[in-house]
Structures are given as structure tokens and as C-alpha cells.
Design brief:
By secondary structure, this protein is an all-alpha fold. It has one domain (about 5-150). Helix content is about 75%, strand content about 0%. It contains 6 helices and no strands. Helix 5 (about 90-105) packs antiparallel against helix 6 (about 115-150). The protein is elongated, with a radius of gyration of 18 Å.
């Protein structure tokens, strides 16, 4: 028999795991989209595809992150999610955004044209998208729950 605390800890890990999977899937989806485009059809001055990658990342993240938030809220059985829930859910996104700002920002050792910088920038943008979409989804979840409680 498992102690009662383990189920609680497993439930609380659902949010960070769901959002880590959403960040990973969005980043991989954006990368695959850019790599599947024929040469010379990418949108930027040097035809490297950063505009295409960010567009694909925004589109994929706009779908995956709210789904991850709803799944996490249902698994965690959150009625009124707060700031702590957002910080826990988006912890991986904050880590990715901070890592990009600390290590891959231009002038900190990585060059703007390198593949390492492109991957770092893509993950940093995915982290920022995860933060914004999680916060807005949690606010929406909270408002829907409050509206449903008033209607009862």
C-alpha cells in the first residue's frame, strides 16, 4: 500500500510534466515544419526560416499549451488555480526562457547565425509561449469555474 502523500505528489507533477511535453512537442513541430520546407522558400533576409519557425511555434503552442493546462487542472483537481499553480505548471517554461536569456543571448558566446543559437532561440520562444499561454489558460479556467459556481 502506498502512503497517502505519494498520490498527492504524483498529481502535483502532472502540470509540469504536461507542460514540458507541450513545450517539447511545439519545439519539435516547429523544427520539423521548417526543415520540411523546400530550400529558398523560407521567410527572412537570409532564408534561414526564423520567421517560419516562430509562426509555426505560435500556432502549435496556441493549441498544445491550453490543452496541457486543462489536463493538468483536471488531474490536479484544481477549482481555483492561483499564482503558485501557474509557477508550478510553467516551471519548465521559465527554466527554458531563463536559460536562453543567460546562455544564448547574442553577445554571450553564441553567434546569431549558428544552429546552437537557433535551437536556443526556438526553445526560449517556446518557453515564453508556455508562460503566456499557461497564465491566460489558468485565468480562463478560473473564470469558467467561478461562473459555473455562480450559476449553481
Amino acid at each position: 500500500m502506498t502512503p497517502p502523500g505519494r498520490a498527492t505528489y504524483a498529481r502535483l507533477l502532472a502540470g509540469p510534466v504536461a507542460h514540458a511535453l507541450a513545450v517539447g512537442a511545439a519545439s519539435i513541430g516547429a523544427f520539423v515544419y521548417v526543415m520540411s520546407r523546400p530550400p529558398g522558400t523560407l521567410h527572412t533576409g537570409r532564408a534561414v526560416g526564423d520567421v517560419d519557425a516562430i509562426g509555426a511555434l505560435l500556432f502549435i503552442s496556441a493549441i498544445l499549451h491550453p490543452v496541457a493546462t486543462v489536463v493538468a487542472c483536471r488531474v490536479e483537481q484544481l477549482e481555483q488555480p492561483g499564482l503558485r499553480d501557474h509557477l508550478r505548471h510553467a516551471s519548465v517554461s521559465y527554466l527554458l526562457a531563463a536559460s536562453f536569456l543567460l546562455f544564448a543571448w547574442p553577445g554571450r558566446g553564441m553567434h546569431g547565425g549558428s544552429l546552437g543559437f537557433a535551437v536556443g532561440a526556438l526553445l526560449g520562444a517556446a518557453g515564453l509561449m508556455g508562460i503566456v499561454t499557461n497564465a491566460s489558460s489558468l485565468v480562463g479556467w478560473r473564470l469558467r469555474r467561478a461562473r459555473a459556481a455562480v450559476e449553481r
